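Cont'd.
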Amino acid sequence: MKYIEEFQDPALARRLLDDIHATVTRPWALMEVCGGQTHTIIRHGIDQLLPELVELIHGPGCPVCVTPLEVIDKALEIASRPDVIFCSFGDMLRVPGTGRDLFQVRSEGGDVRVVYSPLDALRIAQENPKHQVVFFGIGFETTAPPNAMTVHQAKKLGIPNFSLLVSHVRVPPAIEAIMQSPSCRVQGFLAAGHVCSVMGVREYPELAARHRVPIVVTGFEPLDILEGVRRAVRQLERGEHTVDNAYARAVRPEGNPAALAMLEDVFEVTDRAWRGIGVIPDSGWRLSERYRDFDAEHRFSVTGINTREPAECRSGEVLQGLLKPHECEAFGTLCTPRSPLGATMVSSEGACAAYYLYRRLELGTVPAAATAPTAASAPLEASPVV
Amino acid sequence: MSDTALDVTGWTCPAPLRDRPRVVMGHGGGGALSAELVQHLFAPAFGGDVLAQLGDSAAVSLGGVRLAFSTDSYVVRPLFFPGGSIGDLAVNGTVNDLAMSGAEAEYLSCGFILEEGVEMSVVARVAEAMGAAARAAGVEVATGDTKVVEAGHGDGIYINTAGIGVIPDGVDLRPQRVVPGDVVIVSGEIGLHGVAIMSVREGLEFGVDVQSDCAALGGLVRSMLAVTPDLHVLRDPTRGGLAASLNEIAAASGTGVVIHEGRVPVPAAVANACAILGLDPLYVANEGKLVAFVPREHADAVLDAMRAHPLGRHAAVIGEAVDAHPGLVVARTALGGTRVVDLPIGEQLPRIC
């Protein structure tokens, strides 16, 4: 674990910044795809240190943010049922559905449990044979393989009371959708390193060539981000548009074959709605026919969902890089992490949360005494430690 | 599962807790939800000037003697963890709440809520740990109570302790005394208790060489007051971590606080565990640390005194109180940027990926 400090070294960061300042001659707009990268950028003030000519646009890569409201509402409905134990990663419990969230369902008597691995949910299913145990399977290519493996295990072990509420999404179709938008300003991408550690980079050369954008596979520590920006800017200044792996310590070009095989076995590609953006063709996974019995939507036939998105929330534009969080009129007033209108304000990787959490001072739009957030610090509601 | 309408009559804030018609775990998390519950529901219901001060302990006067009076409840899971147990916490937590008023704890009360079925040997181990912690802190458990709840209605053992102690003459510790220019000192490495607990929590077990820092801070405070009684405020950053304590002080004092991230002592094991889990060490709980706001002219001497004490040997100056951004805590990052350090809503959760 010596690798963290090394990638936050201020002296090395200064050298990378100097190099970027020396390289850039024209304005460039880069999108960091992943919300984790957004938080690193804002938390460490990297955007304040870059040349004004380099603009970082925050992308849609927050799995919590892009999970459709309809799926959240389905989760709330299923979790409210008396025979169900509903398991989820903690991030999802505060995401607002239509009028309430999973914490509220729990306070109303629903059996909602925070787990740290989908395999924990499977164990809970084995220990509670009289209950239906549902795991909320959301996320990008990073979280999909363990969720796939859990369903594979459930089938193999014949555990009938386990199912997955699936809302997995894929990054490359989202990049495609962003580039096809008439209002797109993105000239280069910092691709999400953890996604590529699973998938490899095979999907990117064609995207880079077709849209003439450099795509730099980038990690999550401050030096990773700066190196990604440096390589992207260098390409742009030279008129190049190739795929470059700046996260070689974690990403092999071919990805993780075992994880890919598991995905192939359990999931199939489908169109998927992204919260705030809309349906993107081929941008998601669903359980394949062989595993359909483990699909919570089929098992519980959740119908009659009547979603209501707050009209004031503009998170869709934020997720597409069309709007900075603080440019939204509701930012910091109607919408705070304490009472969020949209998922981008509540998620631990949401761009609005990052701006509210770390940038209130500079933005000057939010009173100091406003009730506080946290995002990188969502509540550990299940776990008193004192 | 319909919600009961909230009766907000008499509440002091328009539509408090408006989005939480029922209690959620975050109301006990030591962050914004907890503060809201106390400030807008309990304090108006109870009234009283002493409670309105909302300190870690109350300063009251009886027969001409200034007393610190405090209570806390302990619901930690698991009951035993690296570096301590719920028994140690129940003693040290209340002793420390008193110490943050400058008082030496003299007497504790102890209320047990036991769950039917818990093994008697476990109760005995906890009681023995409490006794040992009390002797080490120089405090006497003077009165107590025991209740038993049906199986399934508790986590084995809950403990409430209350304590009283005498506040020395000339000592007046409260956030309202903080002024711009005060130096912010933390007594040692942060995040140890929270990471130690997480490392043994079901579903999250991970191998890490971290022990809880659970300890009684009365002696350390005594050695600080021996240098000068003119400390401005002390807090022990438990739930919500250092970030919550600094925010409470900033809000109550009306000053801004600036900390320098690179100066905050974070052990490598804590930093690494937090990096893996997506947590910020500033928000992780401690049980044997304090943060002090000290007049600048006394800061060096107080720091030396702290470092001479076993519980303060890693003490460090981490920042200062400032005129700018009143009520806000701001961190200067190692790279040279700035960020707001906010009050948590509850406590932290590991991220999804």
